[in-house]
Amino acid sequence: MQVSSLNEVKIYSLSAGRSLPEWLSDRKKRALQKKDVDIRRRIELIQDFEMPTVSTKIKVSRDGQYIMAVGTYKPRVRCFDTYQLSQKFERCLDSEVVTFEILSDDYSKIVFLQCGRFVEFHSQHGHYYKTRIPKFGRDFSYHYPSCDLYFVGASSEVYRLNLEQGRFLNSLQTEASESNVCDINPVHFLFAMGTAEGKVECWDPRTRNRVGLLDCALSSVTADTEIEGLPSISALKFDGALNMAVGTSTGQILLYDLRSSNPLIVKDHHYGLPIKSIQFQHQLDLIISADSRIIKMWNKDTGKIFTSMEPEHDINDVCLYPNSGMLMTANEAPKMNIYYIPVLGPAPKWCSFLDNLTEELEENPESTVYDDYKFVTRKDLENLGLAHLIGSSLLRAYMHGFFMDIRLYHKAKMMANPFAYEEYRREKIRQKIEETRAQRVQLKKLPKVNKELALKLIEEEGEEQQFSKKRKQKNLPSLLKDDRFKVMFENPDFQVDEQSEEFRLLNPLVSKISEKRKRKLKILEELEAQGQEEEEEPEGKASDAESSESSDDEKGWVEEVRKQRKLLRQEEKLKRQERLKEDQQTLLKPQFFEIKEGEEFRSFKDSAKKQKLMKKTLEDRLKLEEKLGTLNVSDTTVGSKQATFKLKKSEQQRKQQEAEKRHRQERKTLRRSASHLKSRRGRGRLFH
Fold this sequence. Notes:
By secondary structure, the protein is α+β, with helices and mostly antiparallel strands. Helix content is 32%, strand content 28%. Among the domains are: 2-363, 7 Propeller (Methylamine Dehydrogenase, Chain H), CATH 2.130.10.10; 373-416, no CATH class.
């Protein structure tokens, strides 16, 4: 029997464990039970409570004695007698059963709706009658006052079959193209059907008229829900005269009061799977809703989750045993699950021993369902080299990580770190030795870390204990014994550095405060001895004297702090001098730098200027270049800015330009001198 707990609600899985094959002889079964501990410890509440392949529907008779289930393959129905804790009978059918209904208090009258449009009636002895409906059926309900069966399915009509007259009556014409589910209120017998368009139509069987229409598809869309496509109605259940719960194909449950068209509460499963079953638990005001993956129990007034269950296989149907805490499920697996939740109610009378068993288990808690699994995060999987297993059946996603088998985890850890077990073993041995040492006579030993601080605390505690004994007060807890400060005396990282600047500046103040505290304790002891009150001043000592003494103390520790500061400055000066000596002693090695092609080295100052220029912002550089004349910024007619840059020239180009400039100036001077000579010669001829 497996035990799981969610929200402090214990869930006992009574069908956990391996089942023995039917073809084994009793002798071999007994031999297996002797050898295998799991088989010996399992609880087989009802013998052979399973189907050959898959179970689709499960129901309990009104008297609570019989549990009936249908499944495949081959299509069959099995009836289990709870008083005998075994199977009563099994009947094979011609086609698979869509759903069935127990009309009597026991198993004597049963109706089966089958896949091939057949409706089959069974009595106590077996098959009784078989008929057919015009279209494929999906669900039906029985109206007790008129003995009518209402069939809904792949049609807009609701077919009525009267069992008293033995004939079909006029069908109800609806606005829906198809209908999925239906139910009849047990108090006022209102007939409701859920359509493929996401609506619920309510009909009065007495007048055969529609009396109400609910648009559940529109109401199921809230701000938090993400819906793909139009939600259709997949589950429907009445609770009392006024409440009705509706489940959609997109995973929402809507709780309605029949007097209002708006839902009281909308609950989302967050899996996007169709709701398969809705049950009401009246003792705790819970709604039990299930899709193919999870069963959720939540409060119908607040919507708060009570607990939930995730079976190993997909769920087809859920059945709550009346007035008890037992829950049964039909699954996509041969075995049908039985759960017992003591919080919901007591065990049924035919298995009342479960109460005693669960009480013993609570007194002696054993391993829960998660003890055989290890919770690992994605980072743990990457460290173990098992990240490739994400998405496989070996890992089960849960919250922010995964559950994996503890044996697989240990194997992977051994391969990743082969010496982990040896380290763990050494640590355990050390812990055991320390535990044995703790049982011996303890001597007062100072811790390895912060010995001075521990000694100071011990002395202060001793003084305070003596004073509290005299005044009959309770002792304050010790810092050395407090778990919150335990690491401060164990971890070397918390060692107080007495040579640090902070400690040396604070130490005078701390020492003065401790001295003042000791003096105060002495004064209080004297007052107690003289029988005076604590508030009164000691005789022969005025308050002025006290204030003068406190001012003297302040002067004393201020001078001490100044002295420490002076020492710190001297030490810093000595350190700087030592560093300078070391720098002078070290020989400077020449460093070689490579100059880029096309550049010419002038001095280190130019490179420093370039580095400073590169550190400046683009705006500062543009302003500098504009001042130097290498950049010209002007406004255009369109309204934009135009920037013109002058590229810097290399040293060789600059020299060439200077030579050309000198050459041009020389030519100009030559031309001027030649023209001057010509003019002088012309003047001489004229004079002659």
